[in-house]
Amino acid sequence: MKKPKTIVVAVTLVISSASAMAMAQDGQFFINGNLGQSNFSNSLTGGWDKTDTQGALRLGYAWHGVWDYGIEAGYADLGQASQRGSYSYTDLNGKTQQAAYQGSFSARGWLLGGNLKYNFNPSWYLSARGGWFQPRTTSKYSSSGIALRQSQNITQDYFGLGAGYNVSRSWSLGIGYDYYDLGRDFGHVNAYSATAEFRF
C-alpha cells in the first residue's frame, strides 16, 4: 500500500464532505466508538506478539442524501506489539547466567478526516473513511535493571471500510477494518473492530 494513494483518498473524502454542506438539506452530529483487535506489521517486531486490543472514538457531522457525507475527528489507541523472553550470558566469574528481558512497541494518536456511507436500503449500509493520523509511537526495552524508552510523533494517514445495520435514525451497529500508516520505519497496523454509532 503506497502512502500517496491513501492521501489522495483522504483528501477526496474531506473535500467531498465539505462540498456536501452546500447541497445537503439534512444532517446530524454523530459520535461513534469501535473496539477490536490490532495487528502490527513492521520489521522491528519479528517474532513478537503483534496482536493487541485496540479502540477508537470519533465525533463529527454527517449530511444525509443517497450518500451520507461527513467529517470526523477522534483518537485511536492501537495497543502494542510485545515480546518477553530470556537469554544466557557469561558473568565475570565465567559462570553462565540467565537474564529476562521484555520489549514493547505502541502507537496511539489523533485522527482528522472524512467519511461516506451508502445506505442500500433503509436498514443496511456500507461505509468508508480516511484522513490524517498523528500517532505517538513508543518503544520500550528492559533487561537486568536497564530500561530504555524512545517516543516519536509522526503524521501519517488512515483509511477504513465498514458495513452495518441502522437500528434507528439515531443508532447503528457494524463491523469494520482500518489501516493505520505508521511510516516507513514502523510499518502499519491493521485493525478489526465492532462499531456502535449514535447520531443526534
Automatic annotation (TrEMBL):
Keywords: Signal. The keyword Transcription does not apply. Residues 11-200 form the Outer membrane protein beta-barrel domain. Gene3D superfamilies: 2.40.160.20. Residues 1-24 form the signal peptide. It comes from the Bacteria. This is Porin family protein.
